[in-house]
Design brief:
single chain, elongated, alpha/beta
Length: about 550
């Protein structure tokens, strides 16, 4: 006669051998004979959980635990099934009891820590991971996750130390490498806003790039490492601190990311910036135009990189089909000349702003011009000037060789972004009009700056050039390379053509409602690129944005 003990032994044998369909009826036969048999309930529950029948497994495991509440194995299997069934609250409580009943159960403590970390309980997670590490010091994943918990608690140094230990324990573990890279990037300063005045430690940046590359070699589908690499590369490009090697690595990773997620805008931007760095902005702009077809106009407007690249048309044919600048003027309010500057052929300092910027900044710029004994002629154009602004300009005409103009724009229904974009960009159409009207050199300056000295030496340097441009040589992208806080336009044929094309480029985008912030810097870059590729480029006198002694710029440019 077959006893329950014999039947259980046979069921367990089938179960351990993977013959689940043969084990299941034996467990059921035992439970028909003894419905409260704890081992049969537990093992049948485990079997049902293994086959994905979580709804059938949970009642069995709960009954087994109720019969033997002090059995850590029963409780641990219930906890794992609860987690698989998407019941994290009950699973956490069950894992906590399991870890208390059997402190040697490293996996229970680790899973408890993971659940707590997922739920935002960093302190509880750190304690659970510490318990796992006390029993198994070489447990690299527990060390990694404890580091993440400590980082969330603000204990950055302890987290960095654990991450270094994890890499030493498991030098090929992708999670360990990813976490070590995150620590290195934070140590380098990438977790804080970047500027050219705050340089990162290039050795730490390189170390982080290597660690992320190795993590992706170990696991090409490691999403967190891929995101960290592309995100770091993008931030470094924008700050002008991206090493060539890191950008190359990130671009290769970005192509893999795009195969998995064809709408990952950060990955696409990294690829485009790599093309740009190689001198192929034409390829970059075509790539981003094709990529942008996957998005609605509203989605493009909402995404920072899609907005920037939507304004870049580079390559020999970038200006094909561009309307004539003069033909575009009818789409905008008329330029109203209030007072012409004194006649002459010398350079004219050209400043354009809205009424608010005039009162906040342009008065300081004009004060600095007066401090230079008023030797330079100035023209100020104001959008929607107030009576107070017009009165101030009239008073200044008594002391300065000053011309003024205005335009009146109805901004009803415009958001702040569209309005500020208009202020920044419309000036180039106005400079084209004034160049046509007066035919004299224009030295364009942002309103929010002041003169640091006389401009005679600057004017001398511009002799023989068609255009004077300010360059940011840190390869920050086609919308940042030419910084138009200063630009000079000479009344030569190629100087006029460059200004007219830049005005037309900007005007076309504004007219179509597709202009965004930094259009005023995308336009001269794209125009210069197209003209040079066609052999029609102007003679440019380049100046360095970080070393331009004639002007004090307010804020970072």
């Amino acid at each position: 006669m077959v006893t329950l003990r014999d039947a259980l032994a046979a069921a367990v044998g089938h179960h351990q051998a993977g013959r689940l369909d043969e084990a299941r009826p034996l467990y059921h036969s035992i439970l028909r004979s003894q419905p409260g048999h704890p081992d049969a309930l537990h093992l049948l529950g485990v079997l049902e959980s293994q086959t994905g029948r979580l709804g059938a497994a949970l009642p069995l495991l709960r009954r087994a635990v109720a019969l033997l509440p002090g059995d850590a194995d029963f409780l641990g299997n219930l906890a794992r099934t609860l987690r698989a069934a998407g019941q994290p609250d009950e699973a956490e409580r069950a894992f906590a009891r399991t870890a208390t009943l059997d402190p040697a159960d490293v996996q229970a403590a680790f899973t408890l820590g993971s659940l707590r970390l997922e739920r935002g309980d960093a302190a509880g997670a750190a304690t659970a991971f510490a318990q796992a590490l006390a029993r198994r010091p070489d447990f690299a994943e527990a060390r990694i996750n404890r580091a993440n918990a400590l980082a969330a608690l603000g204990r950055a140094e302890d987290a960095a130390r654990l991450r270094r230990q994890a890499v030493a324990l498991a030098p090929a573990h992708p999670d360990a490498l990813h976490n070590a890279a995150v620590s290195a990037l934070a140590d380098a300063g990438l977790d804080r806003p970047l500027s050219h005045a705050r340089r990162l430690d290039p050795e730490l940046v390189e170390r982080a790039g290597r660690a992320l590359t190795h993590a992706l070699v170990a696991d090409p589908r490691h999403g967190a490492a891929a995101d960290a690499l592309t995100g770091a590369a993008l931030s470094l490009v924008q700050a002008g601190q991206a090493p060539e090697r890191l950008l190359d690595r990130a671009a290769r990773t970005a192509l893999t990311v795009l195969r998995r997620n064809p709408r990952d805008t950060r990955a696409a931007a990294v690829v485009a910036y790599r093309f740009y760095r190689r001198g192929r902005t034409d390829l970059a702009s075509r790539f981003m135009r094709r990529f942008a077809r996957r998005f609605t106009a509203a989605e493009v407007a909402a995404d920072f990189e899609l907005r920037l690249w939507s304004m870049v048309r580079a390559g020999r044919r970038a200006l094909d089909g561009l309307p004539d600048a003069d033909a575009l003027l009818s789409a905008f309010p008329p330029l109203e000349l209030l007072a012409e500057p004194p006649a002459g052929n010398g350079p004219l300092l050209a400043v354009s702003c809205d009424d608010g910027y005039y009162r906040r900044f342009a008065t300081g710029l004009l004060d600095s011009v007066e401090a230079q004994a008023g030797s330079v002629a100035v023209h100020v154009h104001v959008v929607n000037p107030s009576p107070e602004t017009l009165a101030d300009l009239a008073r200044r005409r008594e002391r300065l060789p000053l011309g003024t103009s205005r335009e009146e724009v109805d901004f009803t229904g415009w958001d702040d972004h569209r309005r500020t974009t208009y202020y920044a960009c419309i000036r180039f159409l106005r400079w084209h009009q004034l160049m046509t009207l007066w035919g004299r050199p224009l030295l364009h300056l942002d309103a929010d700056c002041t003169l640091a000295g006389g401009l005679d030496a600057l004017a001398t340097l511009l002799d023989g050039a068609d255009v004077g441009l300010l360059r940011d040589a840190r390869w920050r992208g086609p919308t940042r390379e030419i910084t138009v806080c200063f630009a000079a336009f000479q009344p030569t044929p190629r100087g006029r053509a460059f200004l007219a094309s830049t005005a037309a480029y900007i005007g076309a985008f504004l007219r179509e409602g597709r202009g965004f912030w930094m259009l005023d810097q995308a336009a001269p870059f794209a125009v210069l690129d197209a003209l040079e590729r066609r052999g029609e480029g102007p003679g440019v006198r380049w100046f360095d944005v970080l070393d331009f002694p004639w002007v004090r710029f307010i804020g970072e440019k």
